[in-house]
Amino acid sequence: MTTTLYGKDILDVQSLTDDEVHLIMETAARYERVMKSGGRLLNMDGKTLATLFYEPSTRTRLSFETAMLRLGGTVLSVADAKTSSSSKKGETIYDTGKMIEGYADVAVIRHPETGSAAELAAGSSKPVINGGDGAGQHPTQALLDLYTIIKEKGKTEGLTVCLAGDLKNGRTVHSGAALLARMGVKFIFTAPEALAMPASITEGLKKSGVEVEINPDLDSAVAKSDVLYMTRIQKERFEDPEEYERLKTSYEVTNETVKKAKKGMIIMHPLPRVTEIAVEVDAYEGAAYFRQAANGVPVRMALLALVCGCE
Amino acid sequence: MTTTLYGKDILDVQSLTDDEVHLIMETAARYERVMKSGGRLLNMDGKTLATLFYEPSTRTRLSFETAMLRLGGTVLSVADAKTSSSSKKGETIYDTGKMIEGYADVAVIRHPETGSAAELAAGSSKPVINGGDGAGQHPTQALLDLYTIIKEKGKTEGLTVCLAGDLKNGRTVHSGAALLARMGVKFIFTAPEALAMPASITEGLKKSGVEVEINPDLDSAVAKSDVLYMTRIQKERFEDPEEYERLKTSYEVTNETVKKAKKGMIIMHPLPRVTEIAVEVDAYEGAAYFRQAANGVPVRMALLALVCGCE
Amino acid sequence: MTTTLYGKDILDVQSLTDDEVHLIMETAARYERVMKSGGRLLNMDGKTLATLFYEPSTRTRLSFETAMLRLGGTVLSVADAKTSSSSKKGETIYDTGKMIEGYADVAVIRHPETGSAAELAAGSSKPVINGGDGAGQHPTQALLDLYTIIKEKGKTEGLTVCLAGDLKNGRTVHSGAALLARMGVKFIFTAPEALAMPASITEGLKKSGVEVEINPDLDSAVAKSDVLYMTRIQKERFEDPEEYERLKTSYEVTNETVKKAKKGMIIMHPLPRVTEIAVEVDAYEGAAYFRQAANGVPVRMALLALVCGCE
């Protein structure tokens, strides 16, 4: 049977088969080629995307909206769904799903609570894409991260990926680790003890045969990494402000860090960055974080087109 | 003379002749047929709708915006007009009308104050549609309600329509009753005494020959109704919280209510609902409220196209 | 060499050569002719504009967005960029530029701080247009003002332009004066002493050979002006509320003012107006302020198309 995502919700990376992931990667690459050659896609002419953002995330919202527009589709935008009248009057997310299926062909939801995307999908007969729900999943970020690694390094099999910074609270690294693990990478987890990757995730990876090294020292980690995936260390996670200052500095990528890195190592970051990657590093050819953000467009184009059967 | 709405403002239902109402109904039905058959409308290619929302109403805003997009038009969206710089600096709605006529071909306004839509229309030489102004009118809701009844029941003449819940404060039921009365329905008004339909409206209907029954008991009302139109009972309208709890329960539609209903009765609601219709009722084939919300799209398409002369 | 704006940022009027200004004027006039004749422009089909507004300015935002839509392009709208997650998390405007170049073909920024537009332009490889940055520049307002004068009076050379109201704080009049000075106008500066044009600007103009008259009396100023450019006098600029009331009245344009004016004088205003132009004046044929606002559309169409090479 041919792989298809037509009519499916994209709620988490676990529900995607390897074939489906490859289909998304190939479709994204195809769209990128068309755009680079100056071509004009009109696959989704006459279709409408609704973006329902219950917490602000300009980057994710714009990335989805530009993806829809570049396919010839149109957008209904709710940048501040939390203060909408329906939400204030006590409408359930399920009922919002019933509403939105009458207005749009596909919906993206961003919500602070885990499970919200699934609730919207339960209400809507049209496909729903999870744009990040609380501490839960952010599957499109995981997919664009995978796309970036494939594009920058040509493969994933056998690569060493160092996840660094706050591995405890970052849903990006949780979703991402689950997906990359299936693609044959080895991990180094580089975090202060207080922000270590949850044991359940680390143990789960090891049990399924994934190589994992715990190494809180960034300099020695980058020496053997093909990919450094940085995340923000947030001040509010710390009780002791001094500890924050100390750790913040030790997890700052500078030109010094780059000098110690394995040849060809790329640096990724879900953005926005604050101080964890110095601006001087932008000039390094392996600094892939802005290219990574731009990769969100073809990957989200692929998802929108595939779930609507317009690829 | 042929009926036309070209260049007209849609401020209230009273100003619409029966011929104009029928034209709107027929145009909406035609657009719905085209969309159902997979056709693509481009009537409003090159035209722009401005949605000016001085109070949030995501459902109404998205419904108008998707209507415009499905006609091939484009949208300028002001989801939070109240905090706009012009509004803060003291610009009158009249001047906003003078501005918006330079930017858009048609405008929709939602505003907490009665008369705002008329003021915008006075300023703008382009057509203005009232998307709800305070305790005043909400004509497009009344029109989509009428469209829903015609679509679900095949006619309006001779139907018994039970308006239930808060009939005192709901502009939806006030606009709606005025329009339905002209279409030959009989009414049952089912509300707690504190939230009864204003006497001026009830008397006005009776004087113009409309049959009206006042019956605060929901169960006996549904037994003879073809249409049950529910509205929300809002906690803040009550001084005594116990009375609120008691009434809230007696005006909750459940499967038990449906069992007592006249055969074929449909249930409508302007949405969002909170507790006044139990989720279990969604499975009832006469549960028309989500279909009603979706009907907002073809009706608003018809209005936009007709006032711009693009039908 | 042919004049071109392809790939350029529009940050201030000083950086535009006279040839570039004329190209913008001619392109705007051409687009206006096409629109007036009912033609449909699709120059920017497939291109996307991002509007990043860190302070509300509905008029400027809608004017740019409708300009883009009328060229067949699409829009990504951030009406409230200040509360966006990236901005809150401490992302620099430079990094926002790096992000936006991946999503859009051209960006407009409005920001309360001088220099923000230049910072965005430094980050983005795609063209950036300054939609007003703090006390700094508002070049597109200056250009649409110039366009209005040319359209209304047929020329600028030799005209007497009276800038009136708050000349101290208005970036509109600062940008505008710089541009008009190059186009051969004479100035009358009509302001209360507390709100006089900064001496640096007045002296600069005089040094470059521009004729400038300081005349705080509005009635005698209009008697010899071809253009009266009014601005708002803001209450919060005054320590003494009585002084505010006195000045507010003396700088109110009424039908009496119009009677004293030079024949054919036009009245302009960046809008929104509050009390500085009485509503009765709207009927005067020289009342050009609403036409001026509408002129923002063809001028911004010209700018968007020119910097993207789609003219």
UniProtKB/TrEMBL annotation, chains A, B, C:
Entry keyword Phosphoprotein: no
Keywords: Pyrimidine biosynthesis, Transferase
Domain Aspartate/ornithine carbamoyltransferase carbamoyl-P binding: from-to ranges: 8-150
Single biological process term from Gene Ontology: 'de novo' UMP biosynthetic process
Broad EC category: transferase
Listed pathway(s): Pyrimidine metabolism; UMP biosynthesis via de novo pathway; (S)-dihydroorotate from bicarbonate: step 2/3
Function: Catalyzes the condensation of carbamoyl phosphate and aspartate to form carbamoyl aspartate and inorganic phosphate, the committed step in the de novo pyrimidine nucleotide biosynthesis pathway.
Entry's family note: Belongs to the aspartate/ornithine carbamoyltransferase superfamily. ATCase family.
Subunit structure: Heterododecamer (2C3:3R2) of six catalytic PyrB chains organized as two trimers (C3), and six regulatory PyrI chains organized as three dimers (R2).
Protein name: Aspartate carbamoyltransferase
Organism: Flexilinea flocculi
Biological classification of the source: Bacteria, Bacillati, Chloroflexota, Anaerolineae, Anaerolineales
